[in-house]
UniProtKB/TrEMBL annotation:
Classification lineage: Bacteria, Thermotogati, Deinococcota, Deinococci, Trueperales
Biological role stated in the UniProt entry: Catalyzes the hydrolytic deamination of guanine, producing xanthine and ammonia.
Native species: Truepera radiovictrix (strain DSM 17093 / CIP 108686 / LMG 22925 / RQ-24)
GO cellular component, one term: cytosol
Keywords assigned by UniProt, alphabetized: Hydrolase, Metal-binding, Zinc
Protein name: Guanine deaminase
InterPro entries named among the record's database cross-references: Amidohydro-rel, Guanine_deaminase, Metal-dep_hydrolase_composite, Metal_Hydrolase, Metallo-dep_hydrolases, MQNX/HUTI_composite_N
Length: 437
């Protein structure tokens, strides 16, 4: 789509321009809808008939029988873990030691890393994810391979070299000085280039000395517009070990706070077993939490208390956490979030609008990307087009849906990779990148 040439995309549209946790009528749906796109941007959203009258010169595209949503935003996913998905029978620390870290060590081989980067980027797109905050590799070459692939394809990605200097495997360890220099090089090369940004990424407090966290804080002060991501309060064994390693810390969050790592550009994955004081401090800092329901259930970490996060005003979005998570689909993460709330006595009752918001606009806001996450005029045209495979259960359910809300509930419950037909980032279709051997 060239600048100045309007395209009118017809589909059934769904988006959440308002926050359904705080406002009524947050879901906006058009059952015979259209989106008008000018270059990178959305210029209009509404009923197809109305918009066709108003934009008569626009090129027609889309399919009125398909479903168009804002591209999904995955706020926590690990690039080196594509091939670890489905490793059963282990909780976090054993799962890391026995299955995940051996695979991450293979990325020392650049050819291996490049092949994996291509698979990873394609897997995001095939699942309708257009923006992601990604845990990269411990190896600088492999980290560059990910940035190169995302740039080549045109994906929006924030990522960084994973840092650790203890308790993993020696080949995954760095030292504070090397970490500082390598991150500086990567930031200067990649931050703000194409649709890429850099995120400082200590793996978790358990695998980082005070000195390594200290240099991470120094980097954040030296480069105040880069992002920060790590893990927090995921499993009970992890939390117990962190308490032993940091006897001075009042709780897990304090291990990061002490080094200036808790701010409005910080995203913390999991936060399952969280204390009240930590929630209050996360809210005051404006930090975001990546809720990864399929991972929390698969690894057996626990059930996420959305109610307490919302009550304290902590921002929450969804993450797939592949490969602790069970796949790349943010639709599935939405379904798992719903189920996780249903299982708790004080769970937050979620509906399709909440799931859509958590998978799109909430993620955009958690990542500071105000121009993404819904279909309002002025937003970037980052989109996912869904259509059920002919003869599928999803097709049958959608055909009999009594309302747009019910259709959206069916999509979250049943639509997966097979239903993703096209993906746009900044008005450009990336359909060619969905396929491949
Ligand atoms: N904590 C530290 N590393 C990891 C990881 O790779 N996955 C998950 N789920 N938690 C972690
Ligand atoms: Fe993770």
């Amino acid at each position: 789509m060239l600048r100045g040439m309007l395209t009118l995309l017809r589909a059934r549209l769904f988006h959440t321009p308002k926050n359904p946790f705080t406002e009524a009528g947050a879901l906006e749906a058009f059952s015979d809808g259209a989106l008008v796109i000018d270059g990178e941007r959305i210029v209009a959203v509404g009923d197809a008939a109305t918009l066709r009258g108003r934009y008569q010169s626009a090129a027609l595209a889309g399919d009125p029988e398909s479903y168009l949503l804002p591209g999904f935003v995955d706020t926590h996913v690990h690039y080196p873990q594509v091939r670890v998905i489905g490793a059963m029978g282990l909780t976090l620390l054993d799962w890391l030691r026995e299955r995940t870290l051996p695979e991450e060590a293979r990325l020392a081989d650049l050819a291996y890393a490049r092949a994996l980067a291509a698979r990873f980027v394609r897997a995001l797109l095939r699942n309708g994810t257009t923006t992601a905050l990604v845990f990269g590799s411990h190896f600088p070459g492999a980290q560059e391979a990910l940035f190169e692939e995302a740039e080549r394809v045109g994906l929006r990605l924030t990522s960084g070299l994973v840092l650790a200097d203890r308790l993993l495997r020696p080949e995954l360890h760095t030292d504070p000085e090397t970490a500082y220099r390598t991150c500086e090089t990567l930031i200067s090369r990649w931050h703000g280039r194409s649709r890429l940004r850099y995120a400082l990424t200590p793996r978790f407090a358990l695998s980082c000395s005070d000195a390594l966290l200290e240099v991470t804080g120094a980097l954040l002060r030296a480069y105040p517009d880069v992002w920060f991501q790590t893990h927090l309060n995921e499993s009970r064994d992890e939390i117990r070990t962190v308490a032993e390693l940091f006897p001075w810390a009042e709780d897990y969050l304090a291990t990061y706070e002490r080094f200036g790592l808790v701010g409005a550009r910080s995203v913390f994955a999991h936060n399952v077993h969280v204390r009240e004081g930590e929630l209050r401090r996360l809210a005051a800092a404006g930090s975001a939490v990546a809720h990864c329901p399929s991972s929390n259930m698969f690894i057996g970490s626990g059930l996420f208390s959305l109610r307490r996060h919302l009550a304290c005003g902590v921002r929450v979005a969804l993450g797939s956490d592949v490969g602790g998570g069970t796949g790349f689909s943010l639709l599935k993460e939405g379904l798992m979030a719903y189920q996780g709330q249903m299982l708790q006595p004080d769970g937050v009752p979620l509906g399709p609008a909440h799931l859509l918001y958590l998978a799109t606009r909430a993620g955009a806001l958690a990542l500071g990307q105000e121009a993404l996450g819904d279909l309002s005029p002025g937003r970037q045209a980052d989109l996912v087009l869904l259509k059920p495979p002919p003869g599928s259960t999803l097709e049958e359910v959608l055909r009999h849906s009594p309302s747009p809300e019910a259709s959206l509930g069916a999509l979250f419950t049943l639509a997966r990779e097979e239903s993703v037909r096209d993906v746009w980032v900044a008005g450009v279709s990336l359909r060619a990148h969905l396929a491949g051997g």
